[in-house]
Amino acid sequence: MLLGRRLPHRLEIALEVAALIGGLVLMRAISGLSHDDLQVLLFYHYGHTFWFGSPALYTLPLEYPPLSVILFSFTVLPPLFGPIASITVYAVWMSLLALLSYALFRHFEGPQRARVAALAVLIATGSVLLISYDLAPAMATLGALWAAERRRFTLAYIMITLGVLLKLYPVFLVPVVVIEQLQALGGVPTTEELRRRLAALLTRSAVLAVLRGLALACAILLLVFGVFWLRNASGALSAFSFAGQRPLQFESVPATLLWISRLFKVPVQLQYSFGAFNWVSPYDGPLKMLSVVLLVFGCLFVYFRQLTGKLGLKQGFLATLCVVVATNKVLSPQYFIWLLPVVVAVDCFDGIWLLICALTLLEYPLILPLRHHMSLDHYYTVVDSILILRNGLLILATIRAVLGKGRWVAIPGLQPIERRQGAAGKPAQVST
Question: Most distant CA pair in the chain: distance in Å?
């Protein structure tokens, strides 16, 4: 819309593409100024040694699932440049993926949501979008959501499996798809009839359909992990041990709680390990255990609410992702690439989420120059003061998502859009 008049469709698309390209150029500049793009050198190492190492097709990423090496291979595609040039090469490939992702989001969720999602991702993750690979598993997750929404459950399981092979977190979304498929084939139970409905479902064909989807997902996982395991047994499974051994990364919610414990004379110190800065303490064990307990019980509670009809499919996706991000030992800015598009798709993006995005941008990289003008302890005091507010709002947003609440602080001019059912206003047929 321009001065009350609707723009021609082609001009509207052209302006959106121009704005996207401008935003991507800005992202590349930000990542270069903050030196975040040096992370791509690690991707280059993984991609180069996998294809050209001795032996070839052997070395796998230490901290990522094995299929991520395919994305890291973009740093050597084409294999004409050295390590430094690979940063720009990788950014170009991720820019193309970003444009494709925007086009898909616009197609499935509409132009207004697509613009809001793009702006939110730019604000919160502008310095890391083009030098991480989180956009790929995020789009696989969205693909699973769109497929399940249209009752294409086999495709939904395949997309989630692809996401797990790139980044482990989508595994928590499998029960959300299972519950949606059961409900699509057998109806939504109320709380009172839940026990009776669960017993009845055991005799229905819905169970067989779900088992077929799960069997396909497991077969793909076993096949991919098995192929890589035959080449490099330890490397194929290293992502699991790496995740289990990680300390509390300083931006995460549990790490923020650990930092606050300094006020009560708990010894806490900053340590660089596992490729990130972390808060460590002799007494951080209970917080690590608490993060696992809250993750498990939080997800189970979301599944229960979805099973009893209190959460829909998209609400279940959002609530599960919020629980995973809020309870994780690690919370880098790129994790919001997983989350924000789903927030927008559920029409939950409001002032609270906008403030979360702004505080994430402020925490990194806007205040990064202060690091050169104050002591490390004072700098991280400023950073953690911002993180206390950001993570507090994230906890609030997570509770709201789990309870299935909508917007609390509406953004003027951003109204929920009427949703379509199926392809032409009719409920989509179930495809098992």
Answer: 68
